[in-house]
Design brief:
The complex is a heterodimer of chains A (218) and B (256). Chain A is 79% helix and 0% strand. With 218 residues, chain A is an all-alpha fold. Chain A has a single domain, classed as MetI-like fold. Classes of the chains: A mainly alpha (218), B alpha/beta (256).
Chain lengths: 218, 256
Amino acid sequence: MGLDFSVVPGWMDTILLGVVWTIAITVSAAALSFVGGILLAVIALYAPWIVRQPFRLFAWLFMGTPLLLQLFLIYFGLIQIGIDLPAFVAGVVGLGLHFAVYNSELIQTAIIAVDTGQMEAARTLGLSRTQALRKVVVPQAVRDVIPPIGNNMIALLKDSALVSVIGVTELTLSAQLAIGRTYRPFEFYLVAAVCYYVINLGMEAVLRRIERRIALSR
Amino acid sequence: MSDAQPFVEIRHARKNYGYIEVLKDISLTVERGQIVAIIGPSGSGKSTLLRAINDLDPLTEGEVLLEGVQVNKTLPHRQYEKHINEMREHIGMVFQHFNLFPHLTVRENVTMAPKLLKGISKAEADALAEEQLAHVGLLDRIDYYPSRLSGGQKQRCAIARALAMKPKLMLFDEATSALDPELVEEVNLVMKKLAEEHMTMIIVTHEMDFAASVCDRVLFMDQGYVVEEGPPEVVFRNPKEARTREFLRKHLGDAT
């Protein structure tokens, strides 16, 4: 029994809906991981000791345990303490926070690398430390780490397949649904793989545009 | 403001880095509109003294006053921050390495602080940028990023950025030391222009010619002390102290 793609067109609606959900979850989680990464980096570098500690624990938890387990904890675990998140939201939160921790590591290094003269110049103009960070230091740091953050975002896209296990019908789960009815795993997993690859190409194109725009202002 | 009160006053300034004393009991006053040059060998404490005036390098002991208001007040953190930010709005500073904001255009470099701190509108900010950049002769580069400017242009932009806050006092920390020799003059011209407009300026410099031609007073510092001070004619032509003479012999050469 060889490959038979004739069953695929009948399931294209399901697959494309999966693509839409995968893009939605990736974009939402990427946005959360970006903003969260900046906040975590600033907290790690500038917050008082007592504030830093819970965030250090948080970072350690998200870096030191499997993403799959984190998704289970957020989706199935939090219900027990009364936090009942829809699967999509749980997926975005899990993926977003997980990658926020990784982005934060990159941004912290970049903030440290920004010349101290930048902070001094901003402070001598009368800016507060917070204003100087927001307007001068962090924007420069973020520019410096856009390429490695882009790599994280591509990893995020691929890891978004994990949210299928908490019931978000994104691309991987859509393919599994089709397989369940047609018993054609090879065909549908291949279709899903091609879809991931195409989304990936799109993401890389967007990242390249952002990098080019930043390069212009250097 | 009474005339009896000095414009800038430094009282018994001391600063230690651990065991190393960088400033050893320095007191001085600067009158409104005066232009004071601080000269001396590297490591003499002149930059540290300058940076103490806006509390960028806090003193270990002593006071800095601007128009009778103490700049380096000891206050609880939040109150200190509020106080020092207000004081710094009145004290412009220009650095050796320009420290322009590389992610902002020349226009944005000049207008960022006034927009943020004085809440001026976009139209007012544009007018301010044009006014300040015309003043330093950089209007034609208004929408450039700093990376596309020459060193002299960068420093003139940094001066415009400081002036945009309408400071009462300007501090120059070796503003021309990082420039190629042929670019020094364009920055000096801007500083001379400011001098003619009676801006109060304190200038740390290695350029004896410039100090002699522009400044009202020259301070010679060595090893954390002000060794000698006076009008440039006296300090440069007829120094009293042996250390001043020795320093000038090494650094003047063609100036006298």
